[in-house]
Design brief:
By secondary structure, the protein is α/β, with parallel strands linked by helices. It is built from 7 helices and 7 strands.
């Protein structure tokens, strides 16, 4: 009796000596076996070739992202997909192809305020919502983004206030209180850190 390959053993569910004998006599039918894999990155167990727990849709996979946006029961917002897209035609292509429910704007990663303005205009023309977030700027950068965001008069919540993560940040009148970024007029900017 020839021993079957591991792949054949899995396909036929050969787990015991009795299964092996039945297989060698051509009396064992192929079973409907689902092969599961464990993701090396996050240890999630999944079926198929791509871990559904990790970011399985990578930047630039517009058709896959479009399918997800079309079939989702929850709104989807594009974030990293916008980074590195600078030409207006390319921005329009991203929004037209993917048609997300929202876009997330990080001005410092998108090319500044004018680039963000262009994204906002294109999104609004396609009835795509948007909000602005900071991207780990210092308090100086956060202050600039907060003032820019204020000029947009958006009724949506914005994602500002990540500068508090730094232990060497410039002390400022900015503070997050009750989920809002505030400016305490009784405090001043401490720019001494810039002199070192």
């Amino acid at each position: 009796m020839q021993f079957p390959s591991l792949e054949t053993m899995v396909m036929y569910g050969v787990y015991t000596i009795r299964d092996l004998i039945l297989y060698s006599e051509n009396k064992l039918v192929q079973r409907n076996i689902r092969v599961l894999n464990e993701c090396e990155a996050c240890s999630f167990v999944f079926e198929g070739c791509v871990c559904n727990n990790c970011n399985s849709i990578k930047q630039g996979q517009w058709q896959e992202m479009a399918r997800l946006c079309e079939d989702t029961p929850l709104p989807i917002a594009l974030d990293e997909e916008l980074i590195g897209v600078f030409l207006e035609k390319e921005k329009l292509d991203v929004l037209t192809t993917i048609n997300p429910q929202y876009i997330i704007l990080k001005p410092s990663l998108l090319g500044g305020f004018s680039a963000s303005d262009q994204w906002i205009s294109l999104a609004e023309n396609k009835n795509i919502g948007w909000w602005i977030t900071s991207a780990l700027e210092s308090n100086i950068g956060l202050n600039a983004i907060a003032q820019y965001t204020f000029t947009k008069n958006s009724k949506l919540h914005q994602g500002l206030g990540t500068g508090s993560l730094f232990n060497n940040n410039i002390a400022s009148p900015l503070a997050v209180a009750n989920g809002n970024l505030t400016y305490n007029t009784h405090l001043e900017w401490d720019l001494n850190l810039l002199n070192h």
